Amino acid sequence: MATPEGQAEEKAVKLAAEEINAQGGILGYKVEVVVGDTKLDSNTATSEFRRLATVENADVIIGGFSSGVMTAMMETMAETKTLFLSDASSPAHAQKVEQNYEKYKYWFRVSQNNGSTFALDLADMVKFLRDSGYEVKKVYIIRDEHVWTDPVMAALKPLLEEMGVEIVKDVKIPRGYSEYEQLILEAESLNADLIMPILAISGTGDVLAKQWATLKPNLLLAGHDLAPIDPEFYEKTNGMANYEIFLADGGALVTAPPTEKCREFVEAYKAKYGHYPESHQAYGAYDAVYLYKMVVEMAAKNGEKDPFNPDVLVKYLEKFDASNPVKLTRTIAFYPNHDLMWGDDYVRNWISQWQDGKQYIIYPPSVANGELKLPPWIEK
């Protein structure tokens, strides 16, 4: 809860609960929100999950930002048999559902795609830059020293090799890292065409953007970093985020909402809290509350004896597949392993860029509302 991701989830869930209660609740019951803080620590997280499930008697648990922490919480979820509409991106979570369905079936990924899909998006980013006239032959990677980035790299390396792109260096950094200047200078000395961040846990994307803009190296800053998704990021960097290219995780941007419900949500969020969602986790958390309401009401309508039973609700959530997606703030469907469906017609991490204080989606064309702009100091 000290991170923008956790804060956005809590605010979004409370907003959804407030809206649903104003409409009569769920089957006449008022929705109550109780909060636990993982503190990005596995032991704390499992303890808090158990408290929410057994002491607070939570019917559904929403959230979970860190992949490593998520893995630990899934064990507690299996013990308490609590429906878990989650965040985090490690492919290992969905693999657990595949390998031991009965134990882990209560888990569904709602906020963002499986991390291995980030590799597809990053590869498309490189292709898009090339097609737009910016040649990419060498890439310098800066990534979290964390479990979630390993499958991304495992999938990304062969994709880049296939395109003839060399990874000149792969640097892992810890949470709170701020010495980007030396890395930027090294990337330029190695003739990299772009620095590709793969960051979520570091929490210092603003520092990276500022140092890149200050040094003005002859290379782009283009990759995956959660920080630039924040609508306030431009102001937080004093405008030095200009021209940074990033992935819009979770399939939505305040400036390019993919659905009418998304448009309504971001405005309601701003009206209630005085600012737009500070993290893409807000979309998933908000959708999770409405998803829960939908499946409980579906179960009741179909005459289920206990429409709140998690074993029953799993079956109804599984009905939202490729042939039957549900349109909330994004178009949501699940794979058989309960992973969030990836694709242009579902949830995808859109290739986006900061331009003069505004976020634009620049690829794919089906959702783009802007075009690529190169920094004036780039010589290509």
TrEMBL record:
It comes from the Archaea. The keyword Signal applies. It comes from Archaeoglobus fulgidus (strain ATCC 49558 / DSM 4304 / JCM 9628 / NBRC 100126 / VC-16). Keywords: Signal. Residues 6-321 form the Leucine-binding protein domain. CDD domains: PBP1_ABC_ligand_binding-like. It holds the Pfam family Peripla_BP_6. This is Branched-chain amino acid ABC transporter, periplasmic binding protein (BraC-1).
